[in-house]
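Input chain follows. Return C-alpha coordinates only.
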Amino acid sequence: MNEQSKWSKVDSYFVDRLLTADPVLDAVLDANAGAGLPNIDVAPNQGKLLHLLAKMKGAANILEIGTLGGYSTIWLARALPETGRLVTLEFEHKHVVVAEDNLRLAGVSGKVEVMEGPALESLALLEARGTEPFDFIFIDADKPNNPHYLKWALKLARPGAVIVADNVVRNGEVINPDSTDDRVQGIRRFLDLLAEEPRIDATALQTVGSKGYDGFVLGIVTA
Protein backbone atom coordinates (compact mmCIF):
# COMPACT_ATOMS: atom_id res chain seq x y z
CA MET A 1 0.00 0.00 0.00
CA ASN A 2 1.50 3.35 -1.00
CA GLU A 3 1.41 6.32 1.35
CA GLN A 4 -1.42 8.16 -0.44
CA SER A 5 -3.61 5.06 -0.36
CA LYS A 6 -2.92 4.65 3.35
CA TRP A 7 -3.74 8.29 4.11
CA SER A 8 -7.01 8.04 2.16
CA LYS A 9 -8.01 4.85 3.96
CA VAL A 10 -7.34 6.47 7.34
CA ASP A 11 -9.46 9.48 6.36
CA SER A 12 -12.24 7.12 5.30
CA TYR A 13 -11.96 5.30 8.63
CA PHE A 14 -12.31 8.56 10.58
CA VAL A 15 -15.22 9.72 8.42
CA ASP A 16 -17.04 6.41 8.85
CA ARG A 17 -16.62 6.50 12.62
CA LEU A 18 -17.10 10.16 13.44
CA LEU A 19 -19.24 11.79 10.74
CA THR A 20 -22.93 11.06 10.36
CA ALA A 21 -24.03 10.04 6.87
CA ASP A 22 -25.14 13.19 5.06
CA PRO A 23 -27.00 12.72 1.76
CA VAL A 24 -27.12 16.49 1.19
CA LEU A 25 -23.35 16.94 1.33
CA ASP A 26 -22.91 13.82 -0.80
CA ALA A 27 -25.29 15.35 -3.35
CA VAL A 28 -23.32 18.61 -3.28
CA LEU A 29 -20.09 16.79 -4.14
CA ASP A 30 -21.91 14.88 -6.89
CA ALA A 31 -23.26 18.17 -8.29
CA ASN A 32 -19.79 19.69 -8.26
CA ALA A 33 -18.36 16.71 -10.11
CA GLY A 34 -21.26 16.67 -12.57
CA ALA A 35 -20.68 20.33 -13.36
CA GLY A 36 -17.00 19.68 -14.03
CA LEU A 37 -15.69 21.68 -11.07
CA PRO A 38 -12.15 20.79 -9.98
CA ASN A 39 -11.98 18.19 -7.22
CA ILE A 40 -10.39 20.50 -4.69
CA ASP A 41 -13.08 20.73 -2.02
CA VAL A 42 -11.95 20.17 1.53
CA ALA A 43 -12.24 16.55 2.66
CA PRO A 44 -15.31 15.70 4.79
CA ASN A 45 -13.29 15.50 8.01
CA GLN A 46 -11.67 18.86 7.15
CA GLY A 47 -15.12 20.34 6.54
CA LYS A 48 -16.19 19.06 9.95
CA LEU A 49 -13.06 20.63 11.46
CA LEU A 50 -14.03 24.02 10.01
CA HIS A 51 -17.55 23.52 11.36
CA LEU A 52 -16.27 22.71 14.85
CA LEU A 53 -13.79 25.60 14.88
CA ALA A 54 -16.55 28.04 13.92
CA LYS A 55 -18.83 26.58 16.60
CA MET A 56 -16.10 26.72 19.26
CA LYS A 57 -15.56 30.36 18.36
CA GLY A 58 -19.31 31.03 18.50
CA ALA A 59 -18.98 32.67 15.10
CA ALA A 60 -21.94 34.75 13.99
CA ASN A 61 -20.31 36.52 11.02
CA ILE A 62 -18.16 34.40 8.72
CA LEU A 63 -16.16 35.38 5.65
CA GLU A 64 -15.03 32.75 3.16
CA ILE A 65 -12.58 33.67 0.40
CA GLY A 66 -13.04 31.02 -2.29
CA THR A 67 -16.46 29.36 -2.67
CA LEU A 68 -15.96 26.77 -5.43
CA GLY A 69 -19.21 24.74 -5.29
CA GLY A 70 -20.13 25.70 -1.75
CA TYR A 71 -19.14 22.49 0.05
CA SER A 72 -17.04 24.18 2.75
CA THR A 73 -19.54 27.06 2.74
CA ILE A 74 -22.27 24.67 3.86
CA TRP A 75 -20.12 23.22 6.64
CA LEU A 76 -19.47 26.75 7.92
CA ALA A 77 -23.04 27.98 7.47
CA ARG A 78 -24.33 25.07 9.53
CA ALA A 79 -22.21 26.31 12.45
CA LEU A 80 -23.94 29.70 12.48
CA PRO A 81 -26.66 30.66 14.94
CA GLU A 82 -30.13 31.32 13.57
CA THR A 83 -29.37 35.00 13.02
CA GLY A 84 -25.82 34.43 11.72
CA ARG A 85 -24.55 35.31 8.27
CA LEU A 86 -21.81 34.18 5.92
CA VAL A 87 -20.30 36.07 2.99
CA THR A 88 -18.43 33.96 0.46
CA LEU A 89 -16.40 35.27 -2.48
CA GLU A 90 -16.05 33.50 -5.83
CA PHE A 91 -14.47 34.62 -9.11
CA GLU A 92 -15.88 32.05 -11.55
CA HIS A 93 -19.50 32.57 -12.66
CA LYS A 94 -19.96 28.85 -13.29
CA HIS A 95 -18.90 28.09 -9.73
CA VAL A 96 -21.31 30.70 -8.36
CA VAL A 97 -24.24 29.11 -10.20
CA VAL A 98 -23.39 25.64 -8.88
CA ALA A 99 -22.76 26.95 -5.36
CA GLU A 100 -26.06 28.82 -5.18
CA ASP A 101 -27.94 25.67 -6.22
CA ASN A 102 -26.06 23.69 -3.58
CA LEU A 103 -26.75 26.26 -0.87
CA ARG A 104 -30.47 26.08 -1.63
CA LEU A 105 -30.34 22.29 -1.54
CA ALA A 106 -28.68 22.44 1.88
CA GLY A 107 -31.24 24.93 3.19
CA VAL A 108 -28.65 27.57 4.13
CA SER A 109 -29.04 30.06 1.28
CA GLY A 110 -30.89 32.48 3.55
CA LYS A 111 -27.77 32.89 5.67
CA VAL A 112 -25.26 33.12 2.83
CA GLU A 113 -24.37 35.92 0.42
CA VAL A 114 -22.31 34.82 -2.58
CA MET A 115 -20.33 37.72 -4.05
CA GLU A 116 -19.19 37.11 -7.62
CA GLY A 117 -16.03 38.67 -9.04
CA PRO A 118 -12.36 39.11 -8.19
CA ALA A 119 -12.02 38.61 -4.45
CA LEU A 120 -9.84 41.69 -3.95
CA GLU A 121 -12.58 43.86 -5.50
CA SER A 122 -15.25 42.17 -3.38
CA LEU A 123 -13.19 42.71 -0.23
CA ALA A 124 -12.84 46.40 -1.04
CA LEU A 125 -16.60 46.56 -1.58
CA LEU A 126 -17.24 44.97 1.80
CA GLU A 127 -15.10 47.65 3.42
CA ALA A 128 -16.79 50.43 1.44
CA ARG A 129 -20.25 49.39 2.50
CA GLY A 130 -19.23 49.29 6.16
CA THR A 131 -19.90 45.61 6.68
CA GLU A 132 -19.96 44.35 10.26
CA PRO A 133 -16.58 42.89 11.28
CA PHE A 134 -16.15 39.16 10.85
CA ASP A 135 -15.32 36.78 13.67
CA PHE A 136 -14.26 33.81 11.51
CA ILE A 137 -12.44 33.98 8.15
CA PHE A 138 -11.55 31.03 5.91
CA ILE A 139 -9.02 31.70 3.13
CA ASP A 140 -9.06 29.09 0.36
CA ALA A 141 -8.71 30.81 -2.99
CA ASP A 142 -5.90 31.61 -5.46
CA LYS A 143 -2.69 31.23 -3.48
CA PRO A 144 -0.63 34.00 -5.15
CA ASN A 145 -3.05 36.52 -3.61
CA ASN A 146 -2.89 35.05 -0.10
CA PRO A 147 -0.73 37.92 1.19
CA HIS A 148 -3.38 40.39 0.01
CA TYR A 149 -6.15 38.27 1.49
CA LEU A 150 -4.41 38.28 4.84
CA LYS A 151 -4.16 42.07 4.81
CA TRP A 152 -7.86 42.34 4.00
CA ALA A 153 -8.77 39.73 6.59
CA LEU A 154 -7.06 41.79 9.27
CA LYS A 155 -8.93 44.91 8.09
CA LEU A 156 -12.29 43.17 8.18
CA ALA A 157 -11.86 41.06 11.34
CA ARG A 158 -12.85 41.96 14.85
CA PRO A 159 -10.35 41.36 17.69
CA GLY A 160 -10.49 37.72 18.67
CA ALA A 161 -11.47 36.58 15.19
CA VAL A 162 -10.22 33.22 13.94
CA ILE A 163 -8.45 33.05 10.56
CA VAL A 164 -7.89 29.72 8.83
CA ALA A 165 -5.97 29.33 5.55
CA ASP A 166 -5.91 26.07 3.61
CA ASN A 167 -3.29 24.44 1.35
CA VAL A 168 -0.16 26.00 2.84
CA VAL A 169 2.23 23.04 2.52
CA ARG A 170 1.88 22.29 -1.21
CA ASN A 171 3.23 18.75 -0.91
CA GLY A 172 6.26 20.09 0.94
CA GLU A 173 7.22 22.65 -1.73
CA VAL A 174 6.61 25.51 0.72
CA ILE A 175 10.18 25.07 1.98
CA ASN A 176 11.64 25.60 -1.50
CA PRO A 177 12.67 29.27 -1.89
CA ASP A 178 13.50 28.67 -5.56
CA SER A 179 10.11 27.23 -6.53
CA THR A 180 8.81 28.51 -9.87
CA ASP A 181 5.22 27.84 -8.76
CA ASP A 182 3.53 31.16 -8.04
CA ARG A 183 1.17 29.39 -5.64
CA VAL A 184 4.12 28.28 -3.53
CA GLN A 185 5.66 31.73 -3.61
CA GLY A 186 2.30 33.24 -2.62
CA ILE A 187 2.13 30.96 0.40
CA ARG A 188 5.73 31.79 1.34
CA ARG A 189 4.98 35.53 1.23
CA PHE A 190 1.80 34.88 3.23
CA LEU A 191 3.81 33.09 5.94
CA ASP A 192 6.41 35.85 5.96
CA LEU A 193 3.63 38.38 6.59
CA LEU A 194 2.24 36.24 9.40
CA ALA A 195 5.69 36.09 10.99
CA GLU A 196 5.99 39.88 10.90
CA GLU A 197 2.38 40.78 11.79
CA PRO A 198 1.88 41.66 15.48
CA ARG A 199 -1.93 41.68 15.19
CA ILE A 200 -2.29 37.92 14.72
CA ASP A 201 -1.05 34.96 16.73
CA ALA A 202 -0.75 31.99 14.36
CA THR A 203 0.60 28.52 13.81
CA ALA A 204 0.74 26.11 10.87
CA LEU A 205 0.14 22.36 10.76
CA GLN A 206 1.08 19.72 8.22
CA THR A 207 -1.69 17.29 7.27
CA VAL A 208 -1.96 14.07 5.31
CA GLY A 209 -5.18 12.51 4.09
CA SER A 210 -7.40 11.96 1.09
CA LYS A 211 -6.27 15.34 -0.26
CA GLY A 212 -2.62 14.35 -0.07
CA TYR A 213 0.18 16.04 1.84
CA ASP A 214 -0.72 19.60 2.74
CA GLY A 215 -1.62 21.70 5.76
CA PHE A 216 -3.29 24.79 7.11
CA VAL A 217 -2.66 27.97 9.08
CA LEU A 218 -4.72 28.78 12.15
CA GLY A 219 -4.55 32.19 13.78
CA ILE A 220 -6.35 34.50 16.20
CA VAL A 221 -6.53 38.24 15.65
CA THR A 222 -5.18 39.91 18.78
CA ALA A 223 -5.81 43.57 17.96
